[in-house]
Amino acid sequence: MILITGATGTIGSEVTRLLAEAGVPARAMTRDPGKVAGPAVHGDFGDVRSLEAAVTEVSAALLLTPFGAEIAAHDRAFVDVAARAGVRKIVKISAIGAGESEDPEDVGGMHGAGERAVTGSGLEWTIVRPSMFATNALGWAETVKAGQPIPNMTGDGRQGIVDPRDIAAVAVAALTGSGHHGRIYEVTGPDLLSTPDQAGLIGRAIGRRVETVNVPIEQAAAQIPDPAYAKAAAKGWAFIAAEGNAVVTTAVQDVLGRPSRSFESWARDTKAAFGG
Ligand SMILES: NC(=O)c1ccc[n+]([C@@H]2O[C@H](COP(=O)([O-])OP(=O)(O)OC[C@H]3O[C@@H](n4cnc5c(N)ncnc54)[C@H](OP(=O)(O)O)[C@@H]3O)[C@@H](O)[C@H]2O)c1
């Protein structure tokens, strides 16, 4: 039995779908099992007892802790419960750059501490470190539909934007296959793209020009109510603007034996959300 945490989110829902399609017994963990059509269990990373119930008779788990200051604490709590319950394998969704930062206020540092809980657990482990998800662009959908320019905090800084379906497929390979123990997969798309590049590809998909407008990082961060999130976002934007995440890898090809999906194809598949 595979346990999928974060099962109602972007990656977890696709992992759930892929496992069901492959006929692999799996259980979705969520704070609200009523939201899930298939087998599901109540679980909250802040409630150890619920985690103990969720891991019963589980052999492998997808560990997806939601973004926030509690990533490492949630990872530690889950790993501790899983190890005691006899779970054999954990596949953690982390973030690209997690190996390079010790700063607890940025995403890499938050995930880095969580990774150490997983890699030091004595269990089989795989770390999946995705680049920026293509689906983050859905946050621009209303702006694009209104014919407004997309706010750009990252200048011409490029990233290997990745289709979440590829992240989920790599995670499923690690959960169900062998040869992934002790591996760290930095999962990216095939192209280095800036925000204006993404706007151009969304525009091509919907058949009209989509512009961007530069917004100073401090100004954009000031609009985020949660101070911890605002700080992490500001650090992330500065890092990207300085080309810190201008990275493309072959992880999808290496693990799945096929090329990664492009942002262009994601935008075509998703054009209805942008009014196309
Ligand atoms: N977006 C990016 O560009 C990007 C890039 C690299 C890495 N990441 C990492 O990817 C992860 C986010 O993945 P995602 O976008 O697939 O997630 P998501 O769509 O934001 O979904 C979050 C999931 O977490 C669950 N959840 C929230 N609070 C919980 C709690 N207290 N206990 C148990 N479950 C809880 C939610 O389930 P319920 O509400 O049903 O309980 C939901 O399934 C984060 O760790 C983030 O740092 C994101």
Automatic annotation (TrEMBL):
SUPFAM superfamilies: NAD(P)-binding Rossmann-fold domains
Taxonomic superkingdom: Bacteria
Domain NAD(P)-binding: 6-176
Pfam families the UniProt entry points to: NAD_binding_10
Name of the featured protein: Uncharacterized protein YbjT (DUF2867 family)
Taxonomic source organism: Nonomuraea endophytica
Organism ancestry: Bacteria, Bacillati, Actinomycetota, Actinomycetes, Streptosporangiales
